[in-house]
Structure prediction request, 94 residues.
Amino acid sequence: MSCNEGEMKICLFRLFLGAIAVGSGLIGVAGAIDAKEILKQAKLIVEEGKECVKESEQKVESSKRNTNIRIEELGKEKISIMAGNIKSFVDIFL
Prediction:
């Protein structure tokens, strides 16, 4: 089977367009894979962030409890001092 020069150019042009289409498809697939990986990484970062927030909230609650305990102790000490027990206060802090 022989092709004339015009038909050969058309065949080469079609082959060239086909190669471009295949290349574009591969780039599109690679882009989709990259996007999927980026989304996966973003979800991991969000989960790590949520865990960090949860741990921080637990630390804040623990600090609040400890602070309340210390404030109550301070209040009791103030009451003791105001009730006339200044001597033990002076002995402790001097």
Observations:
- The helical segments are 5-82, 86-93.
- The mean pLDDT is 75.
- The chain is about 90% helix and 0% strand.
